[in-house]
Specification:
By secondary structure, the protein is α+β, with helices and mostly antiparallel strands. About 25% of the residues lie in helices and about 30% in strands. It has 2 domains: about 230 residues, Zn peptidases (Aminopeptidase); about 80 residues, Peptidase M42, domain 2 (Elongation Factor Tu (Ef-tu), domain 3, Beta Barrel). Bound molecules: cobalt (II) ion and zinc ion (ZN).
Length: about 325
């Protein structure tokens, strides 16, 4: 399957931090409306597309939200104080440009501090590039959210963009739905909300759908560099089948199922153990009396930065693995 640059660029550029997913939900509905049998939005905001079937209920989940910052206070000088929405770390954002839903921007600045490694969020502020108190007062208020500003870029084999976590998962599900293989299975494509603040959307979606099998599609870290984290996953080495992270120990039968499907269908795969983080599979596998669950991960460098990097051929392998699960 050819990589669809326009679609991924659109998904990555879409402003939708946790709890503010309307933009991306509308965009995805528009993208998939001709392909699904049913489309619904639940109370929390999860987008659920269904391809009806009489056999097993399969749930796929990719989260629509992205990490960002939320304004906590606008000070007298017109600087914006903020807190994090999801996994944003103070020492990693100094100097970065942020953008709000209305297109206005700010740059993350820091008070004088001795040790930048130990900087806390309370020492940071957004400078929105204006000396006009009215401009600041009229345009920024407590509760407003912003996200990294960064432009989509690609080489022959890889992509740099923001919010690959987890817009690349959304991309994979959109492409899988567009090419939905013939099957008797009852397939639910969930585009979930609020993953980055604790997999909240997946919790209600898992409960209401009550599937026989659940697979989350999300990014994972890599052990590509010499002194980086010790991890087996590498970009360019195929779809990663998760064995464990902080939210799930993959059901042995799901691990075997995904492995067998990868082997049967000549899909390049690797195993993943992630020593931090979790995915939508976390809450879903503990729904009701338990749901056999697993994760297909896209190996991604620089997670939660403004320049996450993934490999296009890994994405193609992930789509093939999703399709293999659908037809099983
Ligand atoms: Co994330
Ligand atoms: Zn994610």
């Amino acid at each position: 399957m050819n990589y669809n640059k326009e679609l991924m660029k659109k998904l990555s550029d879409c402003f939708a931090p946790s709890g503010r997913e309307k933009n991306i939900r509308d965009m995805i509905i528009n993208e998939i409306k001709d392909y699904a049998d049913e489309i619904s939005v639940d109370t929390l905001g999860n987008l659920i597309a269904r391809k009806k079937g009489k056999c097993k209920k399969i749930l796929f989940s990719a989260h629509m939200d992205q990490i960002g910052l939320i304004i906590t206070h606008v000070d007298e000088k017109g600087f914006l104080r903020f807190s994090n929405v999801g996994g944003v770390h103070a020492k990693e954002i100094i100097g970065l440009r942020m953008v709000f839903d209305n297109g206005l921007e700010g740059v993350v600045c820091s008070e004088e501090i001795d040790d930048k490694e130990k900087v806390e969020m309370s020492k940071l502020f957004l400078d929105v590039a204006s000396t006009s108190k009215d401009f600041v007062k009229n345009n920024f208020k407590i509760g407003d959210m912003c996200v990294f500003k960064s432009e989509y870029y690609e080489t022959e084999d890889c992509v740099i963009c923001k919010a690959a976590d987890d817009r690349i998962g959304c991309y994979i599900l959109i492409e899988a739905l567009k090419s939905h293989p013939k099957t008797d299975n009852d397939v639910y494509y969930v585009f979930s909300v609020q993953e980055e603040v604790g997999c909240r959307g997946a919790k209600t979606a898992g409960y209401s759908i009550n599937p026989d099998l659940a697979i989350a599609i999300d990014v994972t870290a890599t052990g590509d560099t010499e002194d980086g984290i010790k991890m087996d996953v590498k970009i360019g080495e195929g779809a990663a089948i998760k064995l464990m992270d902080k939210s799930i120990i993959t059901h042995p039968e799901v691990k075997d199922l995904l492995t067998d499907l990868a082997v049967e269908n000549n899909i390049k795969y690797q195993y993943e153990v992630l020593e931090f983080g979790g995915t939508d599979a976390g809450p879903i596998h503990m729904t009701r009396d338990g749901v056999p669950s697993g994760v297909i991960s896209i190996p991604t460098r620089n997670l939660h930065s403004s320049g996450e990097i993934f490999n296009k051929s890994d994405v193609a392998e992930c789509i093939k693995l999703v399709q293999a699960v659908i037809s099983k």
